[in-house]
Amino acid sequence: MQGGKKTVLVINGPNLNLLGTREPHLYGHETLQDVEIAGQKQAKELNANVTFFQSNWEGAIVDKIQEARTNGTDGIVINPGGFTHTSVAIRDALLAVSIPFIELHVSNIHAREEWRHHSYFSDKAKAIIVGCGAAGYGYAIEHVAKKFPERP
């Protein structure tokens, strides 16, 4: 909790800075900025804090997860992008901080190439949101704000 409000950290991995312009037939036309603006509006309605972070660098994501351990974050929403299928380091960071998290994918990774079907995060996530487009971020933020327990 921060300032008496449930606190959500939303992490976006590689190439999500191109949301809205990269393969819009798969990922839609909403930009990451659109997602962040909607998330901040939603946070006000839920009386919550939401922080967004995007990086194309694995180590920066690990650092951000580790910071969350002591800054009052109650839950993490992570769209790991391509790191979904490759990053033991991000998985280990999520497990090390013991903060519950939701795995999120804008597209349905299970309806795409077979190599996208495996996730290093799914077996540890409290929930998985797949294939709902940018609206998935709203579902995830609401779930954390309403259902995740406050952390001490």
Content of β-strand: 15-25%
Q: What's the CATH first level?
A: Alpha Beta
The best one-word shape is globular
Total domain count: 1
Rg (C-alpha, Å): 14 Å
Subunit structure: Homododecamer. Adopts a ring-like structure, composed of an arrangement of two hexameric rings stacked on top of one another.
Pathway: Aromatic compound metabolism; 3,4-dihydroxybenzoate biosynthesis; 3,4-dihydroxybenzoate from 3-dehydroquinate: step 1/2
GO molecular function: 3-dehydroquinate dehydratase activity
Protein name: Catabolic 3-dehydroquinase
Topology:
Layout lengths: L5 E7 L11 H4 L4 H15 L1 E7 L3 H11 L6 E5 L8 H10 L3 E5 L21 E4 L4 H13 L5
Parallel strand pairs: 1-2, 1-3, 3-4, 4-5
Protein name: Catabolic 3-dehydroquinase
GO biological process, one term: quinate catabolic process
Family: Belongs to the type-II 3-dehydroquinase family.
